[in-house]
Amino acid sequence: MTMRERGLAVMGQRDVANPKLQVREATKVYPTASGDLVAIDRCTLDVHAGEIVSIVGPSGCGKTTLLWSMSGLHGLTSGEVLLDGKKITGPSPEIGMVFQDANLLPWRNLRSNILFPFEIKREKPDHDWIAKLTNRVGLEGFDARMPRELSGGMQQRAALVRALSFKPSVLLMDEPFGALDAFTREEMNHLVEEIYLDTKTTIVLITHSIEEAIFLSDRIIVMSPRPGRIAKEYKVPFERPRSFEIMATKEVFDLTNAIKADIVGAQVSKSRSAVRPAVYAAH
Amino acid sequence: MSGSDAIPEFNKSKSGGSGEVGVTNMSAMTSGPGIQSLREVIAIVLVAVVVIGGTELLLNLFQVPQYIMPAPSLIFMALITEFPLIAPHLGHTLVELVSGFSIGACIGLILAAVITQFPFAEKIITPYVLLLVTTPMLALVPLLILRFGFGYTPRIIAVALAAGPMVMINAATGFRRVDRGKIALARSYGASTLQIFWKIRAPMALPMILVGLMVGSIFGLLTAVGAEMVGGGFGLGNRLTSYSSMIQMPQFFAVVLILSILGILIYVLFFLIGKKWASWEA
CB–CB of A106 and B199 under 8 A? Predict the structure, then answer.
């Protein structure tokens, strides 16, 4: 992050001319036995430095496909993703990923899991920074524990530390807290916001929880059912740090309903056209 | 031992690899019977004393002739007095087992690692490997002796042929357990194919590899002893045929006892390795 970007982020403004991540007409088609499956269709999206953007949408709308394209984990059929103006062709050290479920390696202890990125990159870890992160998420003293000895929340915290350990400027989170109970989830949301306020890392978050999206995001992108297109965008105007009390306000209530209507509406109209009962699982 | 007798289903966790056909499960090794308290120790010793002592008593009581079943005390005496004579043969069997198993296991492991990367090649090769697993390699020993004589060579080949496919088929099951998420994780840090193999695929396959090594080495032991019984003048199998033809039953059973101990030691070895390196799976 340059001085200029940092300054802008602190001032609560964004360098709109130079987005951190640009998704341009991203289309991904999976060939299947029963014909081509269009997972995402001409998605265009800018994410600015120091912004938290959530992507919500019905199951199977291509959210994960879109995120994986941003991370360079897989290519696009057409279109491109630019990071700092440069086209992404593969995984980048600027990008940290947090996966669905914690995705820790079960044969390694916590410490060794957190240091795994450095082992792959053959780099020296910044032990001070990692110690700071570990303390921040409350995992100090658990270094020697194996993943199966940790609760789901602790595992996901470790995954968060691992993703931030090499100081990426962008954090991509793929339904990171979907498997956690509601309380742990709220706790994790607070933690993400705290870390965000500390580091000003740009975050793109995929979630099934509209609440989570509203609590964390500056903007919420709603995707339509397959083929996944960007249907709508909402700005979330609340000041940070946020408290969960805002979740009880009328603004949030209205916003939640609007987003729900977008998702369910799209789902219902699609199901009707396909003469199928609407099966909707948002949570 | 009811927990270990059964062939448990392979633990299908999140990996969800298709068609996992584990011959046995790591849990048979990692969650084997562990001695927990003094009471258990006492019970185990007590039962052993009753079984062995009871056998001794019954054999004496019914005056069972030695050539049918020698008393445990006689077997034990034979083990001690004959051991210097048996020891070199134990050495020969170990040489055959260790060298044959090493060769077979190395080839099996390498084949498994390579083959699983090419699903098409795997489909073609698997039936032949299955054939090798299911055919008792002992059947080939007469032929091997004809070709290679009565030395180590035919036995080592037989052991390798018995152990290798067993190692391969289990290791292949391990290597097939692809966890897309974990591979994506490594790739997101820019891991190379080689790094993914050593840091993700190999550790994930390790529990199944250990199962293959254990089963393979036991199969190797069986084949080594069997091959020694078919022909050649040395090895524990040769001792078995020799002692039984001379109706030296205490000596015969002493050799059987040595073989049992050898088998148990192999099991314990892999049990300990599994406990150290594959306990995360249990």
Answer: no
Contact partners, residue B11, CB within 8 Å, separation at least 6 = B25, B26, B27, B281
Strands A21-32, A35-47: pairing kind: antiparallel
ipTM: 0.82
Structure tokens, B144 = 């091997």
User: How many helical (H) and strand (E) elements, i.e. helices and strands, does chain A have?
Assistant: 9, 10
Q: How far apart are CA A155 and CA B185, in angstroms?
A: 15
CA A149 to chain centre: 26
Q: In which residue are the tokens 């290519």 written?
A: A75
Per-residue pLDDT tens digits for B27-77: 444 455 566 688 888 999 999 999 999 999 999 999 988 888 899 999 999
Q: With CB atoms and an 8 Å threshold, state whether B189 touches A71.
A: no
Residues of A in contact with B189 (CB under 8 A): 91, 93, 116-117, 120-121
How far is it, in rounded angstroms, from Cα B229 to Cα B224?
9
Three-state SS for A87? Answer: strand
Could you identify the residue written with the tokens 């953007």? A53
Return the pLDDT at A8: 47
Chain-chain contact of A73 with B195 (C-beta, under 8 angstroms): no
Facing residue for B280 by CB, picked from A95, A121, A148: A148
DSSP A4-49: HHHHHHHTT---TTS-SEEEEEEEEEEEETTEEEEEEEEEEEEE-T
User: Strand A52-56's sheet: what is its strand order?
Assistant: A95-98, A170-174, A202-206, A52-56, A219-223, A230-235
Return d(Cα B132, Cα B215) in angstroms, integer.
14
- Cα A43 to chain centroid distance, Å, stands at 16
What phi, psi does B15 have (nearest 5°)?
Answer: -60, -40
DSSP A228: B
The amino acid at residue B62 is F
Residues of B in contact with A101 (CB under 8 A): 14, 181
Residues of A in contact with B182 (CB under 8 A): 103, 105
Q: Which tens digit of pLDDT belongs to each residue from B13-36?
A: 433 333 333 334 444 444 555 666
Closest CA–CA distance from residue B270 to any residue of chain A (Å): 18
Q: How far apart are CA A28 and CA A50, in angstroms?
A: 27
Nearest to B280 among A91, A93, A146 (CB): A146
Location of structure tokens 């705290």: A194
- Enter the DSSP assignment of B49: H
Q: Which two tokens stand for residue B269?
A: 């070895």
The two tokens of residue B84 are 């210097």
The residues that bridge with A31 in the sheet, in sequence order, are: A36
B183 touches chain A (CB under 8 A): no
A101 near B CB under 8 A: yes
Q: Rounded to 5, what percent of chain A is helix, strand, coil?
A: 40, 25, 40
Determine which helix (DSSP H) or strand (DSSP E) holds A205, and give its type and residue range: strand A202-206
Q: What's phi and psi for B191, nearest 5 deg?
A: -65, 145
